[in-house]
């Protein structure tokens, strides 16, 4: 549904401009079940070329590795995914569940990502898997993945652009920056003017569980629905692009030691950070302390 | 002698994983089984987590009704904590939920449902070429318009709630955002634009003219009144649906349920159709006889679901979700449980809302002929006409409001439920918190009501019942089954997509 929100080009223009033929989409295609079955068989036998396989949702292996918690025509869907992935020129895991296992990764459904299980390479298809096009599974984490990112990667693959990837096989173009970058609360973060409860004007990192400085993603650069983001309306970033999403500790609160978050902005040294934040809080201008500067 | 045939049909465009098994006797469906083919275990994942985590996890149950899950999760926490959201927050909550429904109704009606009108099964229909011109997937003229306009109106949710889908801006005691005057003006612009598009493209007339339609004879008169009414997507829908007989299939049990939705804050000029403080009233109806809704009467059965057995039905506060998977067809055949109200299966969604609100047009249609595919999809296509005027009022009432949150403090213990109407119908979260952790979480979604398998008394679920009696013209393309199931706006949440590059392919280099 995120993808229907594409703008400039919109979804229809994108498909036309790139000359993409959508073989099947579970929500938008209108082929009959028997046509769909024939299409699947033609792809599996190699009679129908499959250039890009987009996988949404985790690979469900439960119970006990059988995959019977998620079936198609009485058979585990995971087997169909494995067979199609071998045929596809590129495989793109769209969303955190397909990338890293996501919400069901620690649950009884035994979910895993297509080629990662949380922080570890491997997942469903295994560490050494590469597609016909010579690439690993390209991960587009996020819950949901931003539509511009999906459109961007499809365009890059079809146009033959080189796509540099992060250590989690996510394109650096969109996952090379923190959600924190571009947040309109940045000045409040800088001077450590904190929110302790919803609806205050301040930084959400210190008490409200914001993962903006801990999560890689373009939310505050390309924005959602052309205009906003969670942090801009006072919702902490939940780190939904991170391999451990959804974290094992409660949302909306920051784990901390004596008021300093347990997890500091990615790569920051603790001692330096303590000194810097102490000075920054002392230097906070009155307009921020009084929360007069709008967000 | 007719021959009985059994066939199994996986259905797409139902937002998820569904297989319908039908028994066909002489070309007519004589029995049906609805099977949800995926277990996701969301409820069990929530147990043991932080008290507010339902606000983050449950919207992710579904990419198309996240605001509704967020609403239900927050209402349950409001009840547990005794929080009372300020009137301004109630209006903003309502506006985002209404926006989600505004766009979803039209996307479903004109992208997902109407795509079947362009199915070759209808090539002999006099309106087929016109249907292809409008609804061919990814290409039809209406399809292009709907994609363009529905994503515009969703910007209202992004302005008020940060993003769509999957925001978590509703919290116990109110909302996290503080919409500014500029934000509200933008929302009014997007709503005005959508209204005008909906009037031109879908209704072919003003909202006011449409709202004068109060009976089947009014509907016929409206349709015959001018070309604009006939050529709008609503008029086209009515003509096409009648030509292919959608008014004669998909009857079902004729039981309707609504939990009620869109609470009216004390300072609004908007009035609901009945006392009870909601714009969309709660109720249960058998036929058009409406009775008050009492949540204690909701139970779930698992006799035919792949969960560990218990006797009869359990209220969601007592409900259990213990998967028992075999994957083999036997007595148990679905990952969906069987919700019942007072022991009855029930349909929910726009038609149920219209019946329970005693909307004269739909009371007349259903009173005469019972429910049908035609009436269900009609209710969906015209629901925006009911909600847009209230949205306009609430947006103007919000001018100058500064108070959107009243802190309930830390939530450690309690029981509560959050009941609302998602786009597809009745949605409920039943939650217990103990020692600052979630102890129990049970969700009944609208599609659980609809996709229900048989219950402990062997009574069919709503889809199963609605399918019985349907005539299938071509067994290799049973498009009629799709109409019946899709008329309930089925949503079981989706998984695998496959895309093929076109002529550019030869130039791939990496």
CA-atom Rg of chain A in angstroms: 21 Å
Strand percentage of chain A lies at: 5-15%
Look up the CATH topology of the largest domain in chain A: Rossmann fold
CATH superfamily of the largest domain in chain A: NADH:ubiquinone oxidoreductase-like, 20kDa subunit
Write down the overall geometry of chain B.
globular
CATH C-level label of chain B: Mainly Alpha
The appropriate CATH architecture of chain B is Orthogonal Bundle
Structural class estimated from helices and strands of chain A: alpha/beta
CATH class (first level) name of the largest domain in chain A: Alpha Beta
Radius of gyration of chain B: 22 Å
- Biggest sheet strand order of chain B reads 1-2-3
Q: How many β-strand runs of chain B?
A: 15
Dominant shape of chain A: elongated
SSE order and pairing:
The complex is a heterodimer of chains A (295) and B (510).
Chain A: H1 11-17, E1 20-24, H2 33-45, E2 52-56, E3 59-60, E4 71-72, E5 75-76, H3 77-87, E6 90-94, H4 96-100, E7 111-112, E8 116-117, E9 120-121, E10 138-140, H5 147-159, H6 172-175, H7 186-190, H8 219-222, E11 256-257, E12 260-261, H9 270-283, H10 286-289
Parallel strand pairs in A: 2-6, 6-10
Antiparallel strand pairs in A: 3-7, 4-5, 8-9, 11-12
Chain B: E1 4-10, E2 18-25, E3 28-36, H1 42-46, H2 54-57, H3 66-81, H4 87-113, H5 128-135, H6 141-153, H7 155-161, E4 170-171, E5 174-175, H8 181-203, H9 207-210, H10 216-225, H11 227-231, H12 233-243, E6 255-263, E7 278-286, E8 289-291, E9 298-301, E10 313-314, E11 338-341, H13 350-356, H14 360-369, H15 373-397, E12 414-422, E13 425-434, E14 437-444, H16 446-451, H17 462-467, H18 479-486, E15 496-501
Antiparallel strand pairs in B: 1-2, 2-3, 4-5, 6-7, 7-8, 9-10, 9-11, 12-13, 13-14
Helix pairs in contact in B: 4-6, 4-7, 4-15, 6-8, 7-8, 8-15, 12-15, 13-15
